Structure formats: C-alpha cells, structure tokens
Amino acid sequence: MPLWGPLLLPWVLGAVLAFLDGRRAWVAWLAIVGLAGTLLCTAWLLPQAWSAQAPQFITGDWPVGVGIRLRADQLSIVFALVSTAVLLGTLVYEHVAGGITSRSFPALVVFLGAGLTGVFFTSDAFNFYVFFELAMTSAFALASYGEKPRNLRAAFTFVVVNLMGSTLFLTAVVMLYLTTGTLDMLSIIAWGQAGPPFALVVPGTLLLCAFGVKLGFFPFHFWAPAVYRDAGPTVAALLAGALANIGSYGLLRFGVDVMPQVLAQARPLLEILGAASILYGSVLALSRRDTREVLAYASISQAGLIIAALGLNGREGLCAAVALALAGSVDKTALFLAQDRGGERARRAYSVAAFSTAGVPPTAGFWSKAWLLRAALEQGHTPLAGLVVLASALSLLALFRAYQREKWLREGAALHRGTGAVVYALSLALIVVGLWPEPLLRAGRDAIQGLGTLP
Amino acid sequence: MRSFVPPLSRLLLWPSLIIALALWLKGGASVGGGFPAGAFAGLAVLLQYVTVGRDQARRYVAVRYAAPLAGVGLLLVVGTAFMPVLAGYAPMSLFPRPGQPELGAGGLHLHTALIFEGGLMLIVFGLVVTVIDRFALRTGTEEESGP
C-alpha cells in the first residue's frame, strides 16, 4: 500500500460528501465505509512502518526542503490507527443513534480524519500546521453540532481558546524556520544535533503551550470542562478521543523526535506540570456533580499523566506516554459515548471504560499506568508514583459516584442495539488489550524506538 | 443626503476582484497565491454586505453559490494533487515537468500548480463568503424580529 492511500481516500471522500446531504442514511453509510477504508489502508502500512525503511514520499518529487516530506513511522501509524478507529466508531454511533441531524456532519468527520491523518504522516513543521488547522476547522464546525444554545456556547469557547493555541503554534513554526532555515523535521533534527543547545528553547516552549491547549493539561485546561459539558456526547467523544491526540502526538513528535535537547531541559517543568495536572484533575473530578464535567476533569488528570511520563528520564517513561495516550483515547470515547443512553450494554461499557481510566486490571488503562508507575519507580521518582496511585483511586471514586446520580446507569432503559454495539465494541477492545497487552506494549516501545535520536 | 459610500464600494468590487485574480496568477513566481487571492476577494464581498446589505450583495452569482464554489475548489485541489498518482508520479507533481517547454507569456506561466492555487482560492472565497452570509442572515432576521 503506498503512503498516499490513507491520505487520498478521506480527501476525495470528503470532497464528494461535501456536496451530499449527510442526513440521508446512504450518505452516512458512504462516509462510514470510506472511513473504514482509510482505517484498512493505514493498517496495510503497518508492516512497512515496522520495516527498516519507513514509507515516505516527497510531494512533486522535488528535492527535500522544496517539496514536503510525508513519512509514516511507527509513532505516526499507531496514532493514525487509533484516531481513525475512534472517528469511525463515533460516526457509526451517531448514525445508528437516531440519525444525523446536520447536513455536513459526515463530511466534517471525514475532513477531521483527513486532517488527523495528515498531521500524523507529515514530516514538515509547516505542513503539520496546515493539516492541524484543517482538523481544527472541522472541529470548530463540529463543536456547534446540535445547534442548541449550549452547543453554540461550547463551540464559541472551543474556537476562541484553540485559535489562541493555533497562533502560538504558528509563531513557533516561524521561529523554527528563522532559526534553523528549514521546515523539514529530519533537517531540523540534524540542525539541532550540531547547533547550539539553547537555540530552540523559545519555539519549544511555545509548542508546549500550543499542544498544552490541545491536550488540555494544567494550566491550559480551562476550556475543557465547559466544552465537554455543553457539547453533545458524540462531539465530546470526537474532541476528547480523536482531536486531543494531536496534542499528545505533537508533544511526542516535536519533543522527543525533533527537539530532544529542549525536552531534556524541560523535563523538571513537565514533571511539575504533570503532577499539578494529575492532582488538580483528580480532586476536581471528585467535587463535580455533572458526570460530563467529571469526565472532563478525569481527562485533565489523564493528560497530566502523559506529561509526567514525558518528564521522566529515559525511554520507559516515553513508551508509557504513548501507551497512556492510546489507551486514554479509547477510554474517553467509550465514556462519552456511553453517556445518557441507558441500557445494559452502555452501563457495562461505562464501567469498563471507568475501570480503564482508573487503571484497574484487566483493562488497557491498567497496563499503561503500570508502565508509568514502573518507569517512575525505576527513576527514583517516588512522589510521582504515589501521585499516580492516588489519582487512580480518586478517579475510580469520582467515576463510580456517577451511579448515585445518573438514572441511566441504574435503570435498565431500552437501548438501541446499534449504539450499544459501538460502545460495547470499544469496551471489549479495552478488555482484550487488558488481557493481551502485547500489542499495546509493543506499539509504545517500537514507536519510541523508531524515533531514534534520543540519548 | 445620499452617502457616497455604497456607490463607491460598488465601484471598488470589480477592481478588487481583478487584483485578487492577479494575486492568484502571479503566485507561482512572486508574492501572491490562491490563499491571499481568495481572502482578498472575500473581503471585497464583505464590503458589499456591509455597505449595501445582503440582498444587494447576493445579486452576484458567485456570492449566491459560494458554498458549491468551495466544493468545486476542493475537487480541483484534490484532483491536481492526486491525479499525477494515476500516471505513476508522486502526489502534487507539477506539469509540465521541470525542464519541459512551458506554456504562457511574460510573467504568466501555465502549469498545474496554477489550477491547485485556483482551487485553493475558490475554497477560501467560498468559505469566507458562506460565513459572512450566515452572519448577515442571522443579524438580518434578528433586526426584523427585534423591537
């Protein structure tokens, strides 16, 4: 499978879908089949990404630096796979849950997929921004889906905060170009190895802030509770499950791969931010009454875990960060989609995803947290290890307190079979990975191994 | 007393669009390109909305069909980006290939990048005008139903 396959498919599909009425069932199914095709094309690239030479091409066959390099290493592939799967699950859910109410919803989800795939596959800092903006623009439009006043309020907050993040990101890209004279990531890596060690600190800090806004860790979290509460559950799942991956992927790509020297200097700061985020998220999750707000604060705590993992010295912490991001993405999608539906399957899915978020075995979340715990203990960061355990206990408590308040969790209301199947499949995936963690662990380890420039 | 602003803004529309076209055409060799061209044309239309109102601004076909125009632009962009793949070239390959004889005269060079940029211009123009139109529609209905 050539690398342009998973890039071409969502673009063409999105362009076609833009002309069609997304409320019709066949249009929604066309989008679903197309996204499934994108997922297959991406999965097809797996063996190539794991081979010695990662698949890549340069647009227009221009020399490097003139043409844009697109490249799919292990990190790109695992993030692309999980994000596309989350988008697919959410689209299926929204379609079978009672129909899509907006003309443009399937096209926007597919465009979001096109933007995310582009972000994960590009190897050019400015091109990263272009795809990032494409994904954000689709997300801006999606955030107002439902078109009730509360949805629009959520969309407004989301747009304003994220436009600030985009400005920071663009400034960082311009500074990178002015400092290094190139936008190609591999050339920036080569420049960084030879160049002065503190040259990239300012763009690195700006990137941390920009991705911080996307991922929503403390102190960039302020938009998350309002948006996740007021947007519809499907949109919240899209934003928390798929779009937030840009933040974790961007931090891993720019921090670990492109600017490892800046990451090395930023480690203490990352660990402090991570610890603050974990504490803040877990304690406030416990104090909230609205379950969606609880989920939002749990996701802030989750983002804190990823940041703290990045702040640990050595590869193990980074591998744990990848595993945390991937497992967290599925967790949050399942939690948000199970909201308000009722029925046996949604209840089970909610509990499984809540167990996974808290890190209770046998779930995917358990392994990623255990990995972080081990890395923290190996490095002698006992307070961080203690925080991870505390956060797990607190989030377990916060998420299961929902049983006291939410009627849909207690009463066996009838659930549409299709929506139940989607959340059920997501929670099943969490359990399967919990029982057979080898793929997750290997994805984490190889994704970081493939970056290669780390000490 | 009649204000001079509406007729003046109407006079400005066509020169602005011609400047936008020029930005598009010279983008290959100098400052310009599809994105600024689309944004510029969109601003020219915004001026019409502000000065003469939504109904008058929608007299132009391109304004009425802005959203489909963006779709056409998207098809052009995707087409020029991925069509070369069918012939075995890398995506976004330029035709005529570098070194092959060029079409065009003076500063104007005809190549597929121009189509790509044109598509980009249509996307930006279409999106800008659609958003402006939505806002105008919203404020228009609010004024009618308001006190």
Helix residue percentage of chain B = over 70%
Number of strands of chain A: 2
Average pLDDT rating of chain B: 85
**Largest sheet data of chain B:** 2 strands, antiparallel
The domain count of chain A comes to: 1
Structural class of chain B: mainly alpha
Topology of chain B as a string of helices (H) and strands (E): HHHHHEEH
Detail the poorly predicted runs of chain B: none
The largest sheet of chain A has its strands arranged as 1-2
Strand count, sense and barrel status of the largest sheet of chain A are:
2 strands, antiparallel
Oligomer: heterodimer
- Percent range for β-strand residues of chain B: under 5%
Distance between the termini of chain A: 33 Å
Coarse morphology of chain A: globular
Taking all residues together, what is the mean pLDDT of chain A? Answer: 89
The number of strands of chain B is 2
Count up the helices of chain A. 21
Which percent range fits the helix content of chain A? Answer: over 70%
**Helical stretch count of chain B?**
6
Describe the structure.
Chain A has helices at residues 5-17, 25-44, 46-49, 74-96, 105-121, 125-143, 149-180, 185-194, 201-215, 224-230, 233-258, 260-287, 291-311, 315-338, 344-358, 364-378, 382-400, 402-405, 407-410, 417-435, 438-449, and strands at 56-58, 69-71. Chain A has 455 residues and is mainly α. Chain A has one domain. A two-stranded antiparallel sheet of chain A has the order 1-2. The longest helix of chain A has 32 residues, at 149-180. In chain B, 71% of the residues lie in helices and 4% in strands. In chain B, strands 1-2 form a two-stranded antiparallel sheet. Chain B is elongated, with a radius of gyration of 19 Å. The A-B interface holds A 2, 4, 7-8, 11-12, 14-15, 18-19, 57-61, 67-68 and B 68, 70-71, 74-75, 78, 81-82, 85, 89-94.
